[in-house]
Amino acid sequence: MTVPASLAADLAAKFGDKVRENISLAPYTSARIGGPADLLITAHSADELAKVISMLWKAEAGYFILGGGSNILISDKGVRGITILNRAKAVRFEMENEPRVWAESGVVFSNLANRCATKGLSGLEWAATVPGTIGGAVYGNAGAFGGDTAGNLIWAEILTDAGRQQWPVRKMDYGYRSSILKRSGIKATILSAELTLKNATKEEVSVKIEGLSERRKTSQPPGASMGSMFKNPPGDFAGRLIEAAGLKGTRIGKAEISPVHGNFFINHGKTEARDIRALIELVRRSVKEKFGVELELEIELIGDWDY
Question: What pTM did the predictor assign?
């Protein structure tokens, strides 16, 4: 294990059975792919997450935060060092004046959208099909069906060297699937966020969510995947380019470029990350050769890829 024995002992002493060694990360990802974490720490609240992060910063130890497990591909060799599993899931609704909701960063966004529906609160219907967490959405400006995090975020609670701070949405400097945190590599962790909502009825919100869910089912394939593999290039769609390159349905091992939508790569059971990586390189090379377009990954490659 690459974690210093003294640090592992300190973490175990402070967080007890929330610290585990050599744990497979595949079950914690939407694609069900990936090797083990040397050390896995589960944080069950924003306060606990802040304590873990602060301790690791003080020890100058590297770490990786795992939320909903979408939009990532973890190496077959796994993740060296420390992985933090974010299970901070508290939610609080505020109904005075304009309705809004506060949620910790480990809350699954689609679950939050459906909770809003049960209360007759509108504004997050677009997020009902987003598989990731609030933390991941704030970090990467997640979006779907014309909505995005930037359009709903009021502020995010961020842990930095200066302590816990509230960053208003303008400070996030959002772009397409991007934020200042994602672009700059600032030393910071998202702990929670407050999002704006609107009053509606349960029926109105539920009908809209059902409609968007049906649209998602008809346009995106079933099965274990990471979500959209590539960002859409300006004025075009990654899925269209991949289809035009004749790559839909291509398989390497048990990994497949979906025949339904070319920008989704499907795990057909016990798929190795290296096979997904090989498909990524095949697509990039083919699309570049045929159309002169360099596709940029929307997912992140995580872990030890030195093989």
Answer: 0.89
